[in-house]
Amino acid sequence: MARKVSLRARLRYWFDNTMSRGTTGLIGWLAVASFGLVLVVTVAIEIADPEKSGADPLRLLWRTFVTTFSLSAPTDEGWAVMPFWFVLALGGIFVASALIGLLTSGINRRLEQLRKGRSAVLERDHTVVLGWSDQIYTVITEMVEANASRRRAAVVVLAEQDKVTMEDRVQHRIGATGRTRLIFRTGSPLDLKDLEMVNLNEARSIIVLAPDGATAEDADAYVLKTLLAINKGPAFRGRPHHVVAAVRDSRNRAVAKLAGGDAIVLDGDDIGARLIVQTARQSKLSVVYHDLFDFGGDEIYMTVEPTLVGRPFAQALLAYKQCCPLGLLLADGKTVLNPPPGTVISPGDRIVLLARDDSMITLATAPFTVDDTAIVHGVRGPAAPESTLILGWNRRAARIVEQLDVYVAAGSTVDVVTDRADANPAVARLAPRLRQLVIRSKAGDTRDRGVLETLDVASYHNVIVLSDDDLDALTADSRVLVTLLHLRDILAGRGPGSIVSEMRDDRDRALAQLTKADDFVVSEQLVSLLMTQISENRHLESVFADLFDADGAEIYIRPASYYLRAGATITFATVVASAARRGEVAIGYRVSESGDGHGVVLNPDKEQVMPAIDRVIVLSSS
To answer: Is the preceding peptide bond at 496 cis, omega within 30 degrees of 0?
Structure first.
């Protein structure tokens, strides 16, 4: 049988429920107690001194109410009612103290909730970053640069970090953010309720970051689940979202694209491997890529130019004064970099070009002067076998060797020196798949001077120093720096043709430059730059895919003697014309002696007379 509940228990239960509602319930009961006190004292005074107060009971009620919260008793009353005023003053002290305490507690509780970053974001046309890693600093820095010309711009970060901690870290690493407002929220990108906080349906773009310290498998699983939550979540399903993410294992890219629907998913390890291989074979190429990928220098734009419709692409090359056309974005959405010079620009095609700012995309007012006497057509000899030394090993190493096999001539060799136990089995699996390369491995600690001295490093065409991904970034980069210092001392100005080191933390780049290595590739930073660029313009995905494809157009840094007569005084327009006759697009040049350390100049003014250059930077299909 059901137990009978008394009226007192029901009232007590109701009272407890109202009190548990927090500040609102407590203030409500305090108001009831205050009104009861005022009413009781007013009636008592009315009874004790009816002659003085009976004329106007409402005025007396008002006096008692004011006395309650002024914490003072009137002094002009008789002794008969003075005890009641005294009781009212004591009650007022209790009421005022309790009210102040409740308000203070409520405000503190509200501030604590705000500090936790759990309130909803009402921004529109904003950029959302889901997840937290060291890539966040590169992404935010680039977004601040990209939003410099926007009146209202916001970047919203949702991560499983304390809101105040995130704000402090970003402030310490980045500093002022100009017109871009940074909004941080604490929550999990895998939780559908937390995702609703950042207003994904109104966002301009969404960038998904994998957490630091996770294995490739765990990091990709995190990205996959986040994409699934965005694409399949009830609150987001069917909405168009511009999502950009990256996976570390190529095998997970296909399933990540299935989970993300229309999301753009980059293969981080594949991009990093291609960048290292291309940079190892062409000194200072990493500087070119960095300039192309960030928002600080020249950027890639797409523009419609009606006056060039019906004309061959070769004419577009010399149509702009301070822009370098790279190719065409066709009407069907396909990008073609460095198309054949005779390719006719059709209606609906957009020109893909390199410019410092979109305000500088204007046609030249007069034709450029081209010095035909300075143009030569140097013939490159047949590719010779190359020897490459790889010091260290990580999960990208096998991909690096496979990419190197695509570029080098038959009979080339690659030697791997590392103390990691998983390297030898991986090399054994690689060897049968290589067509041009002969691969050999040797066990040894690359930080050991004695080991390096036995390798005859100067005899190699290229040296690649890899960062160990089994270690944390600080330790891994420190080992790379030790190896580079030994190499610098051993070589003392002698070969090899190029030394490229891979770094994990971009802050270590400045220290690495002291070792005088040729190039430094920070793979995760470059992938972050790519993701940020694509988040602003999704068409850039096909542009970058063509740049990284061995069968597409790629960037080469070639001797100036292939294009120009030695000692000629020319403008960059002549360089463009010379490259166009070879079916290439000239986008810059390199000076051997330069105060900035690399001498790379992209997208120069076509009318300015160039200094003595030793290399021309071109976009070529071979």
So the answer is: yes
pLDDT number for residue 452 = 92
Beta partners for residue 389, in sequence order? 415, 463
Q: How far is Cα 139 from Cα 533, in angstroms, rounded to an integer?
A: 9
Is residue 466 over pLDDT 90?
yes
Cα dihedral 136, 142, 146, 152 sign: positive
The DSSP code sequence of 75-104 is SSS-TTTHHHHHHHHHHHHHHHHHHHHHHH
Alpha helices in 537-622 (DSSP H): 540-548, 572-581
Cα–Cα distance, 220 to 251 (Å, whole number) = 10
pLDDT reported for residue 450: 92
User: What angle is formed at CA 166 by the lines to CA 505 and CA 111, rounded to 5 degrees?
Assistant: 175
Q: Is the dihedral of CA 558, 562, 564, 567 positive or negative?
A: positive
* CA-to-CA separations, 443 to 94, 166, 306, 468, in angstroms, rounded: 80, 42, 61, 15
Q: What is the C-alpha separation between 210 and 207, in angstroms, rounded?
A: 10
- Rounded Cα gap, residues 455 and 443, in angstroms: 12
Alpha-carbon distances, residue 84 vs 54, 62, 74, 88, 410 (angstroms): 16, 15, 11, 6, 108
Helix (H/G/I), strand (E/B), else coil: 466: coil
Q: Are 105 and 23 in contact (CB under 8 A)?
A: yes
- The tokens for 46 are 């009315």
The string of pLDDT tens digits covering residues 597-609 is 578 889 999 988 8
Phi, psi of 96 (to 5 degrees): -65, -40
DSSP single-letter state for residue 309: T
Secondary element (H or E) of residue 529: helix 523-536
313 — pLDDT class (breaks 50, 70, 90): very high
Q: Is 108 exposed, middle or buried (0-12, 13-18, 19+ CB in 10 A)?
A: exposed
Mean pLDDT value of segment 612-619: 90
**Percent over 90 (pLDDT), the chain:** 38
Query: If you write DSSP's letter for every residue of 24-67 in order, what string do you get?
Result: HHHHHHHHHHHHHHHHHHHHHHHHH-HHHHTT-HHHHHHHHHHH
What φ, ψ does residue 78 adopt, rounded to 5°?
A: -75, 165
Cα–Cα distance for residue pair 385/587, rounded to 1 Å: 28
pLDDT tens digit string along 161-191? 988 899 999 999 898 888 899 999 999 999 9
Q: What secondary structure does DSSP assign to 179-233, as a single string?
A: TEEEEEEES-TT-HHHHHHTTGGG-SEEEE-PPTT--HHHHHHHHHHHHHHHHH-
Cα–Cα distance measured from residue 547 to residue 237, given in angstroms and rounded to the nearest whole number: 33
Q: Cβ neighbours of residue 83 under 8 Å, at least 6 residues apart?
A: none
Query: What order do you get walking across the sheet with 498-503 strand by strand?
Result: 437-443, 412-418, 387-391, 462-465, 498-503, 519-522
Q: Which residues pair with 437 in a beta bridge?
A: 412
